[in-house]
Automatic annotation (TrEMBL):
Keywords: Dioxygenase, Oxidoreductase
Domain VOC positions: 5-131, 156-282
Transferase found in the keyword field: no
Upper lineage: Bacteria, Bacillati, Bacillota, Bacilli, Bacillales
Gene Ontology MF, one: dioxygenase activity
Keyword Oxidoreductase attached: yes
UniProt protein name: Ring-cleaving dioxygenase
Organism from which the protein derives: Virgibacillus siamensis
InterPro entries: Extradiol_RC_dioxygenase, Glyas_Bleomycin-R_OHBP_Dase, Glyas_Fos-R_dOase_dom, VOC_core
Highest taxon above the source species: Bacteria
Annotated TM spans: none
């Protein structure tokens, strides 16, 4: 029984309409589900992914309209990576980011891979990572109706970076409770000391890594718009998730118990540095309640919210997700 890799990353936006524009029109990802935050049905939960919303490709956003500014720091998920097919794709993305005036750091190298770090309009910390030499878990398939050419498109989530003051408690959870193994380290700044530890699980590679950055002097992050809420790891099925629930309980880590998110089953807990982890099943997936060709075009509600649809829709700001792509 092994964690297979990254399942999804969930972040915070203050404006669903602008967020939808950036991730679909600029980054060319597919909106595979327009639904609600199940813990606060008055706001949207948007899921961007590959063509079918395969696990390991979902980058999701809770809309919190009054979310304040993020003050980056420790105890945080500090960078989300997006996988692209190869080094040539990074050159395409560099030009595209410049065309749309997206804040970026140029193409650099990290842990033997070429990367391109950038920020979305709310300061969300992002990085394209090249799959040129990836030997691990396969990526998804870019959407064929994207404004971005298929051969340059985003294939899923890459390494997720956590920033902590003290790595030991987080490392212990990753390696002793979960199934990650320490695979190496690198420096986050050119010529600096190696301050980032790399952990891998499952088949390994870009879709199965956690990068743990050690920053003992940073104050704790104050999250807001542009911050990450949690990272989820892939579990094969519900039976395995139930076993994981018992393991987390035996480790005396407070947890949510099993939570039915309809599109997948979940278990949430915080590791000792305060970062929220989720374990999520690979299925049943996003085509459960919508035709695969029309994912994300209308408001999808899990069956246990359907009787509240009228009330929910009355509170949500209209968000047109059916318009043709440029």
């Amino acid at each position: 029984m092994e964690i297979k890799g990254i399942h999804h990353v969930s972040s915070i936006t203050a404006n669903a309409k602008n967020n939808y524009h950036f991730y679909t029109e600029i980054l060319g990802m597919r909106l595979v589900k327009k639904t609600i935050n199940q813990d606060d049905p008055s706001v949207y939960h948007l899921f961007y992914a590959d063509e079918a919303g395969n696990p390991g490709t979902d980058f999701t956003f809770f809309e919190i309209p009054n979310a304040g500014h993020t003050y980056p720091g420790s105890g945080s998920i500090s960078t989300t990576s997006l996988r692209v097919p190869n080094d040539d794709a990074l050159e395409y993305w560099l030009e595209r980011l410049q065309k749309y005036n997206v804040d970026h750091d140029g193409i650099t190298e990290q842990y033997g891979r070429k990367i391109l770090q950038f920020r979305d309009p709310e300061g969300q910390r992002l990085s394209f990572v090249s799959d040129e030499n990836n030997q691990g878990i396969a990526g998804g398939k870019a959407w064929n109706k994207s404004p971005v050419p298929l051969e340059k498109g985003i294939k899923g989530l890459g390494p997720v970076k956590l920033t902590v003051k003290d790595p030991q408690p987080t490392e212990q959870v990753l390696t002793e409770l979960l199934t990650f193994k320490k695979a190496g380290s690198y420096s986050s700044v050119t010529g600096g000391k190696e301050d980032t530890l790399v952990f891998t699980t499952g088949e390994g590679g870009t879709g199965a890594e956690i990068h743990l950055e050690i920053s003992p002097d940073l104050p704790r992050e104050r999250p807001g718009r542009g911050s990450v809420h949690h990272v989820a790891f892939r579990v094969d099925n519900e039976e395995e998730l139930a076993i994981w629930k018992d393991r987390v309980r035996e480790a005396r880590i407070p947890n949510s118990g099993l939570v039915d998110r309809y599109y997948f089953q979940s278990l949430y807990f915080r590791e000792p540095n305060g970062i929220l982890f989720e374990l999520a099943t690979d299925g049943p997936g996003f085509a459960t309640d919508e035709d695969i060709d029309h994912l994300g075009e209308s408001l999808a509600l899990p069956p246990f919210f359907e009787n509240q649809r009228e009330k929910i829709e009355a509170k949500l700001k209209p968000l047109d997700t059916t318009r043709p792509h440029s």
